[in-house]
Design goal:
With about 450 residues, this protein is of the alpha/beta class. It contains ten helices and 19 strands. The strands form five sheets. It has a six-stranded mixed sheet, covered by helices on one side. Strand 18 and strand 19 form a beta hairpin. It is elongated, with a radius of gyration of 23 Å. The mean pLDDT is about 95. The structure holds flavin-adenine dinucleotide.
Length: about 450
């Protein structure tokens, strides 16, 4: 085989990097003059970033189509600050990307999502771990070279400087795909962009810690434009006691959430759980004493069909026969909790027979209650009483690189020759993360980056 005359370096072995590397290898063929190298900072058995720990729900009506309202819904989630062209390309390419995954042997199901319905989703069988395994195997078989324990440090015209085993080396790179995640694992960047406390936020999964904004910083040093909300994060409330990845506790809409003083501080029934979880997690971490809060419910939780689906913690809730005992056990001010539950119960004036955990049931508390409770307002009155201690955990950041709908990284609005990016490292999200879209966009724009990088190499 002739020596490769052109080099593509893909940085990061999550969904975006694997989609880019495998697609590029499929474009060029095994015997081509293009060498494709994927570098990954983690050891092979820990590689895969967030993707590896992600259930990877994808917002699609079926593997063949997205909902007609997809682009509008994406723009609404970004408070109409998002790039319509980018989201339109995502909608267009999602079905072909899923078909490509199926071609590689990944099967899809339509998952039951926690307790509430929300937009339709599909899920790869085996979640993100199976995406990583399947795509990495296929990429290796198609000729991609993997370098694990190899951390990218600098990108330059036709090169990437990496560190491996304490040594520095510059790899030739005629094209580069940046796919090395957001900056949630970088305490200094978290503090700089989210404010004091950003640096101590719990990371939702073991893979999250590898995403330390390296790719963002490397691209900014060569003048790349930025996009997305740099103060924005996707975060979720998790059981403070759990040692698991992503031990979310999403039963709070069916009770109340109080802080250490025993006071409520937000509308627990303000929307379906995936519509309020980011706000709650952030509120707990940044505004509550000791950055902790407690979901308090009564024993009627146990009558909600399949309520366990909304709890991913392995630790049982704290249980007590009285609220005073519960408060004492969890370290919440008992008088504060008694007053809060008293006021809340008095405001639960709706017909409790209309309670329905699976949809916004309209069972609102009296408007005198502050903060309000807009749905699922049922008195907390049937012992035993249960509590889960909650902390906020960050999954990913919204601030990142500006890219166009061809995954090209922009500088002063124009593409930087030979530089592409996909996945969490790119911005595009504002306000709130559109539910079940992060993995889809990593795969779709990763594939597009692979195609575009090969096209750029063939031109030069
Ligand atoms: C618990 C959890 C649940 C989730 N659930 C969903 C869901 O249901 N639906 C959804 O859409 N999204 C979900 N997400 C988010 C989604 O999974 C991620 O945003 C997506 O997988 C990110 O893919 P990526 O390829 O951009 O980054 P990652 O998968 O994080 O990959 C980045 C890779 O880059 C590597 N890297 C970092 N820096 C360097 C460097 N300097 N040099 C070399 N390598 C580097 C990292 O080690 C990592 O392997 C979830 C995330 C988590 C953690």
């Amino acid at each position: 085989m002739s020596r490769p005359s052109r080099h593509l370096v893909v940085i990061g072995q999550g969904a975006a990097g694997l989609a880019a590397a495998l697609t590029a290898a499929e474009q060029t063929g095994r015997r081509s003059s293009v060498a494709i190298t994927l570098i990954e900072r983690a050891a092979q058995d820990q590689a895969g970033g967030n993707t590896r720990w992600s259930p990877s729900n994808m917002r699609m009506a079926s593997p063949e189509r997205v909902e007609p309202s997809f682009v509008h819904d994406m723009l609404a989630a970004t408070q109409f600050r998002g790039d319509a062209t980018y989201f339109a390309r995502l909608a267009r390419e999602a079905p072909t990307t899923v078909a490509w995954l199926q071609y590689h042997g990944i099967a899809f199901t339509q998952p039951t999502y926690y307790l509430s319905k929300g937009p339709p989703r599909i899920q790869p069988v085996g979640g993100g771990a199976s995406l990583i395994k399947t795509l990495a195997t296929a990429a290796a078989q198609t000729g991609v070279t993997f370098r694990y324990g190899c951390r990218a440090r600098t990108i330059m015209d036709r090169g990437v400087t990496v560190e491996e085993d304490g040594a520095s080396e510059t790899l030739p790179a005629d094209a580069i795909v940046l796919a090395c995640g957001g900056f949630q694992g970088n305490a200094a960047m978290m503090r700089a962009h989210l404010g004091p406390g950003g640096e101590t936020m719990r990371l939702i999964s073991p893979g999250t810690s590898f995403n330390t904004g390296d790719g963002i910083e490397m691209a900014l040093r060569i003048g790349a434009d930025i996009s997305g909300d740099w103060t924005g994060i996707h975060s979720e409330p998790v059981d403070e006691r759990s040692a698991r990845s992503a031990p979310v506790v999403l039963i709070y809409p069916y009770g109340i959430v109080v802080d250490k003083t025993g006071c409520r501080f937000f509308d627990e029934g303000g929307g379906l759980m995936h519509e309020t979880w980011e706000h709650l997690a952030r509120h707990i971490h940044f505004t509550r004493p000791s950055s902790i809060a407690y979901a308090i419910v009564d024993s009627r939780l146990l009558e909600i069909p399949d309520y366990q689906r909304a709890i991913r913690s392995e630790v049982a809730p704290v249980r007590a026969d009285t609220l005073a005992e519960l408060a004492q056990t969890i370290g919440v001010d008992p008088e504060g909790l008694a007053a809060t539950v008293g006021a809340y119960n008095a405001a639960c004036v709706g017909d409790p027979s209309t309670f329905d955990a699976t949809r916004r049931d309209g069972l609102a508390a009296a408007t005198s209650l502050q903060p309000p409770k807009s749905n699922w307002a049922r008195a907390i009155s049937v012992p035993p009483f249960l509590a889960y201690p909650l902390v906020g955990a960050v999954a990913y950041t919204f601030g990142g690189l500006a890219t166009d709908d061809r995954s090209r990284v922009l500088r002063k609005g124009a593409p930087i020759p030979g530089l592409f990016a996909a996945g969490e490292i790119t911005g595009h999200f504002y306000g709130t993360a559109p539910n079940a879209v992060s993995i889809l966009r990593a795969l779709v724009f990763g594939r597009i980056a692979g195609v575009e990088a090969v096209r750029a190499l063939m031109r030069n």
